[in-house]
DNA sequence: CTAGTTATGGTCAAATAGACCAAAACACAT
DNA sequence: ATGTGTTTTGGTCTATTTGACCATAACTAG
């Protein structure tokens, strides 16, 4: 829908093209209110179709790499980032995704830590945008980002995704800010603290963060296996 | 793994082939203890690789059909079944999936009602098997079935998937048997009843099932929209 | 030393889940 | 006709969880 189906018969001749794209999420401390918010990098299209519109980073699937490797590679090439988390999102293959050629996109989604996101190069053709207010993107990429956001929100409530936004040591308030940024609502500090401390895989250190103008918070460490990601029988390395 | 990687370089030349497969679940009343159990149809491979092994039904993606349409079509062609539920499972694209050629499979999973499953043709090359005790299947299809089972169990606990195994009217005991077959454990009838009646989208009729040698159970009806399937921003028609 | 802010610990009531009990309603055998 | 066995249906009780809320601790800035 949205695109006239005049040349469906033409497109039907060509074999579907296979591409890999990635939705990359990072937290950036918004200058406005000082709280972290969700951002993502997009690349400007230099060719038709959708020339000059922003799109998800990605590219074709090389014959000698797995799907996840292809996602990591195209992510590395376009944005220079190395993800702390990478998971398949969905395979999009609607007939009207591209007006030129039938295209099947296997989309991944990724998280990067703030230190990584800090050294991400922003060029003429690579820009960062707030995930909650995006313009019209190329192809069906608005829908894809919405779906990735939905998955991220679901995963953060369940699993241990939040720590992939953070460094090795963190305060409980930082974890809470991740949740608040992802879920889009404020959480009660005391209740949040109680819940986090009831979960395993999170242990307290002897260190505190000094220098704030208030009571110094304790630092914690995440000890859960990175593989324990609630993906069922699919481990990380298995496709 | 398991297959020698002698000809990786050869395979690397050819473009990845794109196929659609489907894991189809149906409940069959097991002759042994009279309770329904999970079954799925498989097709026998008549060609190499994995000749004579059982495999998931599927086929190549035609250029003029969407992914979901391709899944429904190949499902229809191989087993003659029409699913009551159909959802994308995962895209598998490991390098060693097929010893002959690099292949990317976008896998769907489906549910069929018992009346549909009853008229499913069982031929020399199409057989039905219990989902919990499968032999060695072709390719990585054992892993795929395991993953589909995991997703099914998760969905049944959350959403309203169970009714896609049942007809338009059903007793609460039938719903409970679906849960028990999927989850693999017995549930307390009274507690299960209380939970179901607390959910919306399920209304009682005035009819009862007569003929049993016990108190006749009331028939219920599911009134929830078939679209309300907890797939986030992805509606049924979208991919 | 005081005010402001966050961290941390705690209470309380509502909602939920699980174990369990008991009566109702049928078929069947005697 | 009457009891027996089975399943349905309604109910209670307790432990656990969730969210709202309060209070104190510990720091900095003035």
From TrEMBL, chains A, B:
Gene Ontology MF term list: hydrolase activity
Hydrolase found in the keyword field: yes
InterPro entries, per database record: NUDIX_hydrolase-like_dom_sf (IPR015797), NUDIX_hydrolase_dom (IPR000086), WH-like_DNA-bd_sf (IPR036388), WH_DNA-bd_sf (IPR036390), WHD_NrtR (IPR054105)
Entry keyword set: Hydrolase
Domain of life of the organism encoding this protein: Bacteria
Nudix hydrolase domain residues: 15-153
One Pfam assignment: NUDIX
Name by which UniProt lists this protein: NUDIX hydrolase
Organism lineage: Bacteria, Bacillati, Actinomycetota, Actinomycetes, Micrococcales
